[in-house]
Amino acid sequence: MDVWDPSLWLPRNISWDQVPAKTEDLIYPFYFALPFVFFRILWEGLVGIPASHLCGYNSGPLIPNALQHIFGGFTRNTRQKRILECFWRFSFYTFSWIYGLYVLWDKSWFWDVKNCWIDYPFHPIDQSIWWYYMLETSFYYSLLLGAFFDVRRSDFWELMTHHFVTIGLLSVSWTINFVRVGTLVLVSHDVSDIFLEGGKLVRYSGVHKTLTNICFVFFMSSWILTRLTYYPFVVIRSAIFEAANLIQPDYELYNPFQVPYVPRLIILLLAALLVLHIFWTVIIGRIVARTITEGEAADVRSDDEDEEEEQKVRQLRAAKTRTRKAD
Fold first, then answer.
1. Region Disordered: start and end of each range (predicted)?
2. Is 98 exposed, middle or buried (0-12, 13-18, 19+ CB in 10 A)?
3. Average model confidence (pLDDT) across the chain
């Protein structure tokens, strides 16, 4: 049997010609990924560095710093590099979330997830949805490329797994036109990343302790609402318990021998993302514990240099405390 046999991928009696999403479009994220990286470097150098100067992160000469970053500085493990990485991710997630809301606000499935399955697979894809999907997929490809020069974090392999799972989910969902549910996954995930990266930027300033904690509260709240509530109990629940009845009523999701097989792969990828969410929730719990004991939200997903700096700060605080007690 041909791997592209529609019976393996699509509901009964549906051919590829009837599916609005075209598999050949998935070549575009490959084309866009490298330009994404180039744009990121320019964005960090021409926008991020001036912004960091205005906010007091850097005091060196502006133009030489920007040119140095663009022409090789982006590969160095420096404090400025870590700040600019956060700035890039904060910028993209903010843009993609706002654009996602703009694209989805008047869409029926944004307000009722059942509309992801009704009339499937004949859902038309307008230009705004096409660009939303392609840009998000390109972004995750660019993160894989950026892994070669980005600061290596303590959860590097979990992040790589997340990127591969996300790319797989976006690609497979596009292939079988599960695009509607894919857009819900994207828009619900981006919002917490805005607060995560924004909180890191505030924390790097080293002077806004209260604002850092406020950002962490917003991050934790959005994380719980979107990734631990909406995603599993609305999106995944609907995919498991409602999709089959609305698409092909005699389809048995738990029968691994019944075609089509690919919808089960979508469920597995959704579940894999949830497992990663749970893993990072444990990390968030560690942040909460550290915040209670030290009074400031920290980034447990830190690189080795961050850990050394934090250790020095903790030792200095402890020394000052002992000095006060001795006095």
1. 298-327
2. middle
3. 88
